[in-house]
Amino acid sequence: MSKFLKAVALGVITSGPALAQDDAGRLGLGREALPEEIAAWDVKIMPDGRGLPEGSGDVMTGEEKYLEHCAACHGDFAEGLGNWPKLAGGEDTLDRKDPVKTVGSYWPHLSTVWDYVHRSMPFGQAQILTPDDTYAITAYILYSNYLVEDDFVLSRDNFLDVAMPNADGFIVDDREETEYPEFSGEPCMENCKDSVEITMHASVLDVTPNDPDDGDGGEESVQENSEDPPADNAPVEDASAEQATEAAAGGETADAAAGEGDEQAAATEPDPELVAAGENVFKKCKACHQVGEGAKNRVGPMLNGVVDRQVGAVDDYKYSAAMQEAAEGGMVWDDETLHGYLADPKGFLPKNKMAFAGLKKTEDIDAVIAYLRAHP
Amino acid sequence: QGGPDPLITEVQDWARYTGEGVDETPYGLPIRFESDVVRRNVPWLTADPISSINFTPIHALDGTITPAGCAFERHHSGAIELAKPDYRLMVNGLVDRPLVFTYEDLERFPRHSGVYFCECAANTGMEWAGAQLNGSQFTHGMIHNMEYVGIPLKTLLDEAGVKPEGKWIYVEGADASSNGRSIPIEKALDDCMVAFKANGEALRKEHGYPARLVVPGWEGNLWVKWLRRIEVTDGPVESREETSKYTDTLADGTSRKWTWVMDAKSVVTAPSPQVPIRHGNGPLVITGLAWSGRGAITRVDVSVDGGKTWKTARLAAPGQPMQMTRFWLDHDWQGEEMLLQSRAMDDTGYVQPTKSALRAIRGENSVYHNNAIQTWWIKQDGSAENVEVS
Question: Which stretches are tagged as biased composition: Low complexity (chain A) (predicted)?
Answer without folding.
Answer: 237-269
